[in-house]
Amino acid sequence: MILEIKIAMLVLVIVCAVASITIKDLLGAAVVFGTYSFMMCLLWVSMAAVDVAFTEATIGAGISTVLMIAAVFRTTRRTKD
Amino acid sequence: MDIVMYVLLGLGLLFFTGGTLGLIRLPDVYSRLHMAGKIDTMGSISLIAALFLHEIETFDMAHLLVGLKILLVLFFQFLASPTACHAMVNACLRAGLAPWVKDGQRSDP
Amino acid sequence: MKRLALFTVILAGVLFAATASEFPRLGDPDSAPSRHLSPAYIQGSLPQTHTPNFVTAVLGDYRGFDTMFETAVVFLAGMSCFFILRALRRRGLTEVYYYRHKPTGVVLAMLAPRRISPRTSCFERIDADWTPQDMVVETMCLFMVPFIQVFALYVIAHGHYSPGGGFQGGVLLAASFILVGLSRDLRTVESLLTEKTAILTAAAGVCLYAGTGLLALFFGGNFLDYGAYASFFGAAVPAARSMGILIVEIGVALTVMATLVTIYKLVSSRGTVEEGL
């Protein structure tokens, strides 16, 4: 795969990872975490690990985002720290 | 065939560019979702259709099967993304977000 | 505390960067695993197990123990969520059920012991935070569900030839149930896959996996050696291995599906599987 696209994906992974732990809004953090998982999935595809990418796309970007949003919906949306 | 493919690619990129610009520049949630809907439907569908045309350029069984799968992706994209957009706009309306109006005009949410 | 966490993270990052320089490059043909281990799997999986996708072969057959205990871990995660989150008896909370008269839209609130039988057709039970259902979203989501399930079955059964397998297919099946729950309400999911059925299904998946391994002992093979089923299936040893991988993947898919649906139900309804997202 083209090197520039790989570098852009890596930068996006890092940005999403930092953003998802610094955002105060927990719902936004859950959504950004979903984006992070999807970027990781693209990165796995670029490394030709399609099975891992499939698992990451279904579990990371799909189910875990839903579970986190459900948990936020049932608890609170603001962090304490 | 090639010309159609390039036109579709250009159209998709045009929609992506305009949609991204609108997503950054537009004032409120409804107009931004409007632009997101443009990206999701028109942009993606043009790009996927271009991919399909590129795939069936060499016409045999294997390429046709992959092309059919790409067409299925297009179909579900076409169904799912307007639904997601609609759900988001609906939730915004339920949450009581007022639409943006120009200065000096009456806002009626 | 925060400074300590930052220090730990930076230390771990520096250590990782220092060790990462020693790793072989991605796809380096001279590195130790690429010389002995990978060629054995890549060249051996098709003649030994009739499975062109050697990731599935490694997961299901060569490293069958790992996958079995991963399945057990998924099942245990579901059970822990059940025991931690499930509110079996709600003391001190007055339970109010809301019923909506369908023709007129009048809503009745009823205290806990009294309830309207679901057989009376003109009343429907609604959530406390119910809003009028949106027809577009509900119709489209319910339209998508069968396609998702068919794709999930394809992923499970076609895992030998293309990317996929039990975990992914099970997650997709769970996603279809969760989509029903999101577009309608939790009670529809509960009527499709009750809590008891879900937990029994999860246990049955683990038992299917372990039982497949155990049954191989009675056919004269080792534990999880599906080649022993060759006489039972009336096929050659590699074909029997392929069949064994398929059975095992079905077990994994059952466990993952039931566990994820259970966790979703518990998380989205505060432990009472009554009113969900």
From TrEMBL, chain A:
<dbReference type="GO" id="GO:0005886">
    <property type="term" value="C:plasma membrane"/>
</dbReference>
<feature type="transmembrane region" description="Helical">
    <location>
        <begin position="30"/>
        <end position="47"/>
    </location>
</feature>
<keyword id="KW-1003">Cell membrane</keyword>
<feature type="domain" description="MrpA C-terminal/MbhD">
    <location>
        <begin position="11"/>
        <end position="76"/>
    </location>
</feature>
<dbReference type="InterPro" id="IPR025383">
    <property type="entry name" value="MrpA_C/MbhD"/>
</dbReference>
<keyword id="KW-1133">Transmembrane helix</keyword>
<dbReference type="Pfam" id="PF13244">
    <property type="entry name" value="MbhD"/>
</dbReference>
<keyword id="KW-0812">Transmembrane</keyword>
<protein>
    <submittedName>
        <fullName>DUF4040 domain-containing protein</fullName>
    </submittedName>
</protein>
<keyword id="KW-0472">Membrane</keyword>
<feature type="transmembrane region" description="Helical">
    <location>
        <begin position="53"/>
        <end position="73"/>
    </location>
</feature>
